[in-house]
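Feature request, filed as a ticket because there's no other form

It would be nice if the structure record came with a short human-readable summary line next to the tokens. Right now we just get the raw output. Example of a typical job, pasted below so the devs can see what we mean:
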Amino acid sequence: LYQHMLAINPDYAKGWFDLGNVLRDLENLEEAEKAYRKARDLDFPDASPSLELGTILLKNKKYKEAEDIINIAVNKFKDNYQTWFGLGTINQLFNRFEDAEEAYKKALDINQRYPDAWYNLAVVLTHLKKFQEAEQSIKNFLALIPDDSSGLVILGSLQEELDKLSDAEHSFQKALELQPDDTTILAKLSLIY
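Raw output as currently delivered:
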């Protein structure tokens, strides 16, 4: 149906984007990549095709091209929190933690209710040994998604690092309530006792 519509109107950017989504969902990433490129090249009104294209390129280990596409999207759509998140993700992937921190913070300046950005920021800040900031970041994540066991484990680990052992115990206990069979959480908890 989309291909027929696009044969009639090949300059319909939204149609190319929608076709890309269908092909992505069918796991035909090669054709989805082509459709997203076409939508982007036709000046789609937002960053969606670039973000989807970047995601596919990352999955296909085309890291440099993904980075270039996300950088172009950031420059074109400076007020889009998802483009900044994408840039943070790429910087984090390449262990450029300071750059990742800056990108995630820009995403959060635009949208404070973006849990993935809070989570990734906490991870990056931990790599940078900014433990107090990381603790606050993961708390912000947990304020949005309170029953996330991995977030609670990160919080507990940060609290342990900050010598807040009672708080760490509480975080690990709550994570264990959510994942009672998780031996990693049990091990972390046993180290506190």
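Something like this underneath would help us a lot:
The mean pLDDT is 94.
DSSP finds twelve helices and no strands in the chain.
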